[in-house]
Design a protein that fits this description.
Blueprint: E1 20-22, H1 27-37, H2 41-49, H3 57-61, H4 65-68, H5 78-91, E2 95-99, H6 103-118, E3 124-126, H7 139-147, E4 152-156, H8 163-171, E5 175-179, E6 193-195, H9 211-228, H10 244-253, H11 261-274, H12 279-287, H13 296-313, H14 318-324, H15 328-367, E7 376-381, H16 388-399, E8 403-408, E9 413-419, H17 426-435, E10 441-445, E11 448-454, H18 458-478, E12 482-484, E13 486-487, H19 495-502, E14 516-529, E15 533-539, E16 545-550, H20 557-563, E17 570-581, E18 584-596
Parallel strand pairs: 1-12, 2-3, 2-4, 4-5, 5-6, 7-8, 13-14, 16-18
Antiparallel strand pairs: 8-9, 9-11, 10-11, 14-15, 14-17, 15-16, 17-18
Length: 602
């Protein structure tokens, strides 16, 4: 239905201003997959739309580490790093881990501690305070660890850009191993080993990994070195696969592309998570009211924000402590505290978002631009540094532009966090801004970046980023059409289909969740929930009904059209979601776009 035309269902401009197009360019590919694998055509369309060839379907539907895990030695410095850590374990040396305060950092740190404990050793985890210490290794913390007897330190999810600090650490006699994934400059800081697939001289091809994914490869390499060294003649060898729940959590929450090895990490990790063997994750699932089989969505929107809450508005080490504890009472107490902090974070975030939106809208009005600038930049004193990344993500969604939010202190310096749109590499642009003198510090990856900037450099930074990213943003904006995998009826949008579609997951960045159109729907019931969400019941021509909701849509053209039940027939587009409650397994449709049928081209 509509697949053979230039615009899906004839929609050239929807209520959100987008054209609807088919994700799949050639229907024959979907037909070949359907016939070869015995799959419904709609599921075959989803696979074909993601570039899966018929002969690769079986492997794609069952991503395995056996087929996708590379030799860790393919990453530069991995052998040097793993041999040194194996040596430290066998000699009983003290080792510390310096991790970032986000979910990727917490899971990476917890991953190493759990492995060390499993092989009969222990490590100390140090997580810096976001506000007092900022991102990445800092000299006072490293000197504190040295004074406590830790001469060998592993940084995880940070360190690649810490030239000055790692230089001071080397002068102080510390051995530093960096395990990271952030983009690098040609010159690297001094370290015993720097393992990062995004080093410019690394040819491993694993640049999409989160830090926790690199850390897992690090464990595989250490495990091999311990085996070769005879350690397991007197010690039990750990079950590395049992740690994949941590890898999945960090991978999803760092919004890296769910392709290749990352898909295997998350798919296998979700199975481990379902067994609830990690006491901390079990406690977190309980306070998050996670029922049923966990999916990538639960990692990104239920568990991840709570782990993050400690680093954002509470104690930075709470997340790592929760993920490493073996005490059920301690886990329950920490999980409850993180849940409380997450609610506090939400309230702070709402206030900062309101102020940031007002600031940006005022600037857009004063500039009299026909469209938002290539990069949205908002800055103010008094904003909490712990929520600026989330607010940047909201601004990105609102204006469909890369967005950076800066929290300024009273000394003329600000901490900033940015989020980008598909096709625009914000991390590389921030690194270029650092090299050009606009930043005190900065770095990141394609979809997210962090920075430190002087207040008097904000205007220059904005102009630099606009000039550098304007062309990429224009190209991305021109291709912002809503890509649909096919059309469904209200009756066909059922739980059986949802369960089949889940086999093509996990979905996330780089492997988009399937989007479908529901043609010629009528709205049988509609109301507002939560003040901003539009909930409705869709009815098909055959009378079949489907629950649906449009989040944060009440004041938008989309929400207003849904609330106006007298508009007649309407095409809606969005995603099919599970709706599990007290043992009942159902579905609802999350509406992302719509068009009145009279506005669609026949």
């Amino acid at each position: 239905m509509g697949e053979g035309t230039a615009h899906f269902l004839g929609v050239e401009r929807s209520l959100t201003g987008r054209a609807w197009v088919s994700r799949l360019a050639d229907d024959r590919l979907a037909l070949a997959i359907s016939q070869r694998e015995g799959l419904p055509e709609i599921v075959a369309r989803v696979l074909a739309g993601r570039g899966v060839a018929p002969e690769d379907c079986a492997a794609y539907l069952n991503p395995s580490l056996k087929n996708l895990l590379p030799d860790p030695s393919s990453l530069l410095d991995m052998d040097r790093a793993s041999r040194r850590i194996a040596e430290a374990i066998m000699r009983g040396e003290k080792v510390a881990v310096f991790g970032d305060y986000d979910v990727d950092g917490a899971t990476s740190s917890a991953l190493l501690k759990r492995f060390f404990n499993a092989v009969g050793h222990d490590i100390r985890i140090y997580i810096p305070d976001r506000i007092r210490e900022g991102y990445g290794p800092n000299a006072p913390a490293l000197m504190e660890l040295r004074d406590d007897g830790y001469k060998l330190i592993v940084t995880v999810d940070c360190g690649t850009m810490a030239h000055k600090v790692l230089g001071l650490a080397a002068d102080a006699g510390l051995e530093i191993i960096v395990i990271d994934h952030h983009q690098a400059e040609p010159a690297l800081p001094p370290a015993l080993a720097l393992v990062n697939p995004n080093r410019l001289d690394d040819t491993s091809g694993q640049g999409t990994l989160a830090a926790v994914g690199v850390a897992f490869l690090f464990l595989v390499a250490i495990n091999r070195a311990l085996r070769d060294g005879g350690w397991y003649a007197t010690h039990d060898e750990p079950d590395l696969l049992a740690l994949l729940d941590l890898v999945a959590l960090g991978t999803v929450c760092d919004v890296v592309p769910l392709v290749g090895l990352n898909r295997a990490y998350v798919a296998q990790g979700l199975r481990v998570l379902a067994r609830r063997g990690n006491i901390g994750l079990k406690a977190l699932a309980d306070v998050s009211r996670l029922e049923g089989t966990p999916a990538a969505y639960h990692l990104g929107f239920l568990l991840g924000p709570r782990v993050n809450a400690g680093g954002r508005v509470g104690r930075a080490d709470l997340g790592a402590r929760l993920l490493t504890t073996s005490d059920a009472e301690e886990a329950a107490a920490i999980a409850a505290e993180l849940d409380r902090l997450n609610k506090e974070r939400q309230a702070i975030e709402a206030q900062v978002l309101e102020e940031a939106l007002a600031q940006v809208d005022m600037a857009l009005g004063a500039s009299r631009r026909n469209a938002p600038p290539p990069v949205i930049l908002a800055a103010s004193k008094g904003w909490h540094p712990g929520v600026i990344g989330i607010v940047a993500a909201r601004l990105k969604e609102r204006y469909e532009r890369p967005a950076i939010v800066v929290a300024l202190d009273g000394k003329g310096e600000g901490k900033g966090s940015g989020r980008s749109i598909q096709g625009v590499d914000l991390g590389r642009a921030v690194t270029a801004a650092l090299e050009s003198g606009f930043l005190v510090n900065g770095g990141g990856h394609a979809m997210a970046a962090g920075l430190t900037v002087r207040e008097d450099k904000l205007e220059g930074l904005s102009e630099f980023l606009e000039a550098r990213l304007a062309e990429d943003v224009m190209t991305a904006s021109e291709s912002k059409a809503l890509r649909l995998d096919g059309a469904l009826s209200a009756r066909g949008a059922n739980r059986a289909l949802y369960d089949l579609l889940e086999q093509a997951g996990p979905y996330g960045a780089g492997n988009p969740e399937p989007r479908f159109a529901l043609p010629a729907m009528r709205i049988a019931h509609v109301d507002l929930v939560g003040g901003a969400h539009v909930r409705c019941t869709l009815t098909g021509e055959d009378g079949a009904r489907l629950k649906a909701i449009a989040f944060r849509a009440a004041e938008t053209p989309l929400g207003k059209a849904l609330l106006d039940r007298g508009t007649g027939s309407i095409h809606v587009a969005g995603r099919l979601k599970a709706d599990d409650w007290r043992g009942r397994r159902d579905v609802q449709f999350n509406i992302e776009d719509a068009v009145l049928t009279r506005d669609a081209t026949p």
